[in-house]
């Protein structure tokens, strides 16, 4: 039986990783000795995931396609204990951030990562970043094909790419293999959606120029259908056009979305297709054997037949109301009858969203070993996922997750808040995010009430860079600084569900930190009064518009 | 970078190169992690000199800059901006401990 | 500005032709041209056989446009003469530059010549093809697999 049911490093991968560690160690040595200035060193440390934050260095560790083995998760816990303060922050790009790293320890920390085939390569800087994927990949009932196969192809092609290591700006790619997009592909520099065309072939819809940040834009379709074997040739064409013509005169206009906007999508397509005509039949065309070799490594675990209807589970549902709620919100359909996908909520009441202690990481690893084929996923909503749990095992999994504080039945609910680290950690932030998330989370902690309110995505960013994805929150909250005072702008109506991707609109003047809970309460009350049967918050908003919400908020505040 | 708060009193701050720890320039021209030991410049000219000194001592730190502060009658200094208050005092919430299994 | 070429730790003498800016060069083509990283170079196409030196510029080392120019000149247009990196050229860029087809470098950075001597050995594995004819890991894996299958068949 293989060690993992996803890509396994071989000697080539390990050699490259260890040589990269050596190179980084030498770069750090030269910085500490003064051979390199900070200006020279900064791009070098960033392309190895090392930021300088308010209080310390921060190491952003790549979790390719959000998939972790339990061995890797335990190593992350060990590194957090040894080189940090014993906890980490899972991010909206399926990465893990350690907030208290020392520069002098950073080479040892990345060497420890390499022991379990992990790294921090290209998790920052103006390069192709870690490619993200649907966190239910390989398990979801609605999946056409596992997107991680293609993420892995992109990982290899983009790693230390000699031509694309000094792009105008960062470049983020996401892939979904399901019609119900869980990877937010329309708000990435390139989004790839696997679909089956009328001829029955599976290929990619290529979406370009989406993104949040200062200028939020929904991506446009550059190509309706790209054959799978052309993926890298086409991406190389897109990146070459971007590298040559993307703006470099203004950091706020350097993302590919601005190039697409300024050229127009038709001209962009023309440029890319012209380049693709030359790259298409080059060595970049994927060989069927290569595709097969990588695909075979993502062969799903041999899940044995397990009962789809379990008496003990049905009994517990009646007996334990919280368990029944947890089943509804924190488990999702698996492609195999008898199994569910379980989301471990990293959003217990009052906790900093997405944070986990080393002990909790170890705990989740133990659960995954016992009940989920040794595999854990990181979701872009900052939760952890156990992809293959038998329905029979759900009561046991619920019990052990409860002990870890990760069984809050709130996935997709108002307290499943996405928040960036904000001004408590981040050198770019204007306002704090985590304390705002905590007060909302405490205020709305009643689970029955959360389930009554239903699906409601609250997303909080501490600055315009939008790491908390506030533009696509049903309720988006953006921290701003006004003369040294933290204020929060509220927007409504953002969404990332496929086909319905929309950007929220600001409803009025920013409110103070102490007024946020009251404002969100007013929004929720408006929804509860006006909703129709079965209508989610964002649907009610779309139907009745912003006015009733505004009146309630600015009348009440 | 420091927020655009105008105050007459300033101290020089940076992050230590080796570990990123927040440091301040003291009266003897050394970098210290103890905020209360920071040398205080009392006017615009003194601030310029302080920043020059900080930049001259920048070998072991990253990107020195000035922080606007206020001072009590008893001499206690405090940064004006929230960002700099957080740099001095740390997180404004309790982070989870390494061995904690629940956030309390 | 010191000029480096592989095989020499110390800077070498620049005794070749002087590279002219493209606009000037177009008036009277010589054996050497210097391109800005925004220049289009289709006009060079017919002169490539006569060109001995093309200099590409890095106004800042974080401005990576010349990497694409280099790959297009080498890979697409088949230019085989000297390809020089000028401007802000730092030793940590060398592995990338060598892979994109640069073979001479102007740099003022201390230790540049020694770094150049080691640059091709920093990474013994590459993940993608470029202009240095190194085989990417994916192809080496295929070769190895096919070889072992062949061996098993024999």
What can you see in these coordinates?
The complex is a heterotrimer of chains A (557), B (104) and C (154). Chain A has helices spanning 11-32, 38-46, 70-83, 106-115, 148-158, 231-245, 256-263, 265-279, 288-297, 311-319, 321-330, 358-371, 394-404, 434-443, 447-453, 516-530, 537-544, 547-556; strands at 50-52, 57-61, 67-69, 87-90, 96-101, 132-133, 173-176, 190-196, 202-208, 220-227, 331-333, 339-344, 355-357, 375-378, 384-390, 418-419, 458-461, 475-482, 485-492, 505-506, 511-512. Chain A has 557 residues and is α+β, with helices and mostly antiparallel strands. Chain A has 4 domains: 11-115, Sulfite Reductase Hemoprotein, domain 2, CATH 3.90.480; 140-295, Sulfite Reductase Hemoprotein, domain 1 (2-Layer Sandwich), CATH 3.30.413; 311-404, Sulfite Reductase Hemoprotein, domain 2 (Alpha-Beta Complex); 418-556, Sulfite Reductase Hemoprotein, domain 1 (2-Layer Sandwich), CATH 3.30.413.10. In chain A, strands 16, 17, 18, 19, 20 and 21 form a 6-stranded mixed beta sheet that branches. In chain A, strands 1-2-5-4-13 form a 5-stranded antiparallel beta sheet. Chain A has a 5-stranded antiparallel beta sheet with strand order 3-14-15-12-11. Chain A is globular. In chain A, 59% of the residues are buried. Helices cover 20% and strands 26% of the residues of chain B. Mean pLDDT of chain B is 92; it is low at 1-6. With 104 residues, chain B is α+β, with helices and mostly antiparallel strands. Chain B has one domain (10-89). Chain B has a 5-stranded antiparallel beta sheet with strand order 3-2-1-4-5, with helices on both faces. Chain C is α/β, with parallel strands linked by helices and 154 residues long. Chain C folds into 2 domains: 3-122, TIM Barrel; 124-154. Chain C contains 5 helices and 6 strands; from the N terminus they run ββαββαβαβαα. Chain C has helices at 22-27, 65-76, 94-100, 112-119, 137-153, and strands at 3-5, 20-21, 32-35, 53-58, 82-87, 104-106. Chain C has a 6-stranded mixed beta sheet. The relative contact order of chain C is 0.15. Chains in contact: A-B, A-C. At the A-B interface, β13, α12 and α14 of A face α2 of B.
């Amino acid at each position: 039986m293989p060690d993992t049911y996803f890509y396994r490093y071989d000697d080539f991968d390990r050699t490259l990783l260890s040589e990269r560690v050596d190179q980084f160690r030498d770069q750090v040595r030269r910085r500490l000795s003064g051979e390199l200035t900070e200006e020279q060193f900064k791009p070098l440390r960033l392309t190895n995931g090392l930021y300088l934050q308010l209080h310390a260095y921060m190491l952003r560790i790549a979790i390719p396609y959000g998939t972790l083995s339990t061995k890797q998760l335990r190593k992350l816990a060990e590194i957090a204990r040894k080189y940090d303060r014993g906890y980490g922050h899972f991010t909206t790009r399926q990465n893990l951030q350690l907030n208290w790293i020392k520069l002098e320890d950073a080479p040892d920390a990345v060497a420890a990562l390499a022991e379990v085939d992990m790294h921090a390569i290209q998790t920052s800087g103006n390069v192709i970043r870690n490619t993200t994927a649907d966190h239910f990949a390989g398990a979801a009932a609605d999946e056409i094909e596992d997107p991680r196969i293609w993420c892995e192809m992109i990982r290899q092609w983009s790693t230390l790419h000699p031509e694309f290591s000094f792009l105008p700006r960062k470049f983020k790619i996401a892939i979904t293999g399901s019609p119900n997009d869980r990877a937010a592909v329309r708000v990435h520099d390139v989004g790839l959606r696997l679909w089956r065309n009328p001829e029955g072939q599976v290929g990619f819809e290529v979406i370009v120029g989406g993104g949040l940040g200062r200028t939020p834009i929904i991506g446009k379709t550059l190509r309706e259908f790209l054959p799978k074997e052309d993926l890298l040739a086409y991406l190389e064409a897109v990146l070459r056009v971007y590298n040559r013509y993307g703006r470099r005169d203004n950091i706020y206009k350097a993302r590919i979305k601005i190039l697409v906007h300024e050229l127009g999508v038709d001209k962009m397509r023309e440029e890319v297709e012209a380049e693709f005509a030359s790259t298409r039949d080059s060595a970049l065309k994927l060989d069927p054997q290569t595709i097969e070799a990588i695909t075979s490594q993502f062969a799903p675990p041999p899940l044995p037949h397990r009962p789809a209807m379990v008496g003990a589970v049905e009994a517990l549902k009646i007996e334990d109301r919280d368990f029944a709620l947890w089943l509804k919100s924190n488990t999702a359909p698996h492609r195999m009858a008898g199994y569910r996908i379980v989301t471990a909520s990293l959003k217990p009441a009052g906790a900093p969203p997405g944070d986990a202690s080393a002990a909790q990481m170890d705990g989740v690893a133990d659960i995954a070993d016992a009940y989920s084929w040794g595999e854990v996923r990181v979701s872009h909503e900052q939760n952890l996922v156990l992809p293959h749990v038998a329905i029979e095992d759900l009561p046991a999994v619920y019990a052990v997750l409860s002990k870890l504080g990760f069984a809050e039945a709130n996935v997709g609910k108002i307290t499943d808040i996405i928040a960036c680290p904000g001004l408590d950690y981040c050198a770019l932030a204007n306002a704090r995010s985590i304390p705002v998330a905590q007060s909302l989370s405490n205020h709305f902690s009643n689970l029955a009430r959360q389930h009554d309110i239903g699906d409601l995505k609250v997303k909080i960013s501490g600055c315009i860079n939008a790491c908390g994805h506030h533009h696509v929150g049903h309720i988006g909250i953006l921290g701003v600084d006004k003369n040294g005072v933290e204020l929060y702008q509220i927007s409504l109506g953002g969404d990332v569900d496929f086909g319905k991707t929309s950007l929220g609109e600001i409803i009025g003047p920013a409110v103070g930190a102490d007024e946020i809970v009251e404002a969100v309460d007013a929004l929720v009350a408006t929804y509860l009064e006006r909703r129709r049967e079965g209508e989610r918050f964002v649907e009610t908003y779309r139907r009745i518009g912003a006015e009733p919400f505004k009146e309630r908020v600015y009348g009440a505040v | 970078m420091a927020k655009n708060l105008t105050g007459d009193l300033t101290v020089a701050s940076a992050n230590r190169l080796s570990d990123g720890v927040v440091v301040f320039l003291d009266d003897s021209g050394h970098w210290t992690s103890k905020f209360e030991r920071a040398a205080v410049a009392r006017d615009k000219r003194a601030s310029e000199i302080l920043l020059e000194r900080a930049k001259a001592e920048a070998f072991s730190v990253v990107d020195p800059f000035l922080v606007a502060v206020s001072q009590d009658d008893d001499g206690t200094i405090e940064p004006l901006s929230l960002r700099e208050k957080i740099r001095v005092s740390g997180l404004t919430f309790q982070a989870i401990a390494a061995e904690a299994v629940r956030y309390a | 500005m010191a000029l480096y070429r592989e095989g020499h730790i110390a800077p070498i003498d620049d005794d070749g032709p002087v590279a002219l800016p493209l606009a000037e060069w177009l008036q009277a083509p010589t054996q050497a041209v210097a391109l800005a990283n925004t220049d289009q170079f289709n006009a060079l196409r017919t002169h490539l056989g006569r060109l001995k030196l093309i200099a590409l510029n890095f106004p800042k080392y974080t401005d990576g446009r010349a990497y694409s120019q280099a790959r297009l000149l080498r890979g697409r247009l088949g230019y085989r003469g000297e390809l020089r990196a000028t401007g802000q050229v730092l030793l940590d860029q060398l592995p990338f530059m060598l892979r994109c087809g640069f073979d001479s470098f102007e740099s003022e950075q201390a230790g540049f010549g020694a770094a150049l001597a080691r640059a091709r050995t920093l990474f013994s594995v590459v993940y993608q093809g470029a202009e240095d004819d190194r085989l990417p890991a994916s192809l080496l894996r295929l070769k190895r697999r096919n070889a072992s299958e062949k061996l098993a068949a024999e």
